Structure formats: structure tokens, C-alpha cells
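User
New here, help please:
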Amino acid sequence: MKAVLQRVANARVDIAGRTVGAIDAGLLVLLCAERGDVDALADRMLAKILKLRIFADEAGKMNRSVQDIGGGLLVVSQFTLAADASGGNRPSFTQAAPPDEGRRLYEYFVAQARATHPVVVATGEFGADMQVHLLNDGPVTIPLQMTA
């Protein structure tokens, strides 16, 4: 399972001109389920995201988590994180989970986030053509990968 985290001042997802998910300060989570990923990997990924200390404390050091600041999560499915462009100029996405399994793992991750994180957990729409708007705070962008 892969994710790219962006610390944001605010972010939103629009589909066909309509906002479907939005947060103020927090994390934009671009999430990719890969072949062979299981619920336990999603649980580990979520735990890491919620505890990752990438928000400034009173001294300006990255020492606080999204939980510590009461920040939101905007979780967006992003199968293109599984891209392999090593063989040419057109990326292959064969490492991405099949659509049904990718959707199931994405929905599982979101449900676990909502059950665990008492602040706003917003989403995009799995498989939709989305426009993601964000104001990156820092900028701070962190790639994560969980493997079995």
C-alpha cells in the first residue's frame, strides 16, 4: 500500500464542478492499494499517518501529529501511485490492486479512519475523474509505503 501525504492549510475534491470533500488544516492523503494488500496493511498505514509528527509545535519544529492539531484528513484514491515507468514512456499500472479490491481497501481505510480519527475525514470518489485543490503548507509532502 502506498500513500503520498501533503500537509495542507486546506484542500478539496471537486467532481463535475461540485465539491464532494473538503478539509481545513490537516492532511491530503493520496492512497493506492496494490496487488496483495490486505486490511492489516491499511490499518498500519492509517496508524502511521495519524501519528506522523509533521506539524509544527510552539517552537516551530515538526513535532505534532494530525491528531495533535485536530486536523482533518482528505482521503483520495490514487491508483497511479502504482505506476511503473521503467520499461518505456507509457507507465504500467499492473501493480495496482484490481478495481474491486482497490475499492474495498479504500473504503475499509476510510471507514477505519472515521472510526479512529474524531475530526473530519472527507473523501473523493473512488474511480471518478476528480480535481484536487490544495494549499500545501510548507510545502510538506511525505511518501509512505507499507509492505507485508
Observations:
- Residues 2-142 form a domain with the D-tyrosyl-trna(Tyr) Deacylase; Chain: A; fold (CATH 3.50.80.10).
- The mean pLDDT is 96.
- DSSP finds three helices and eight strands in the chain.
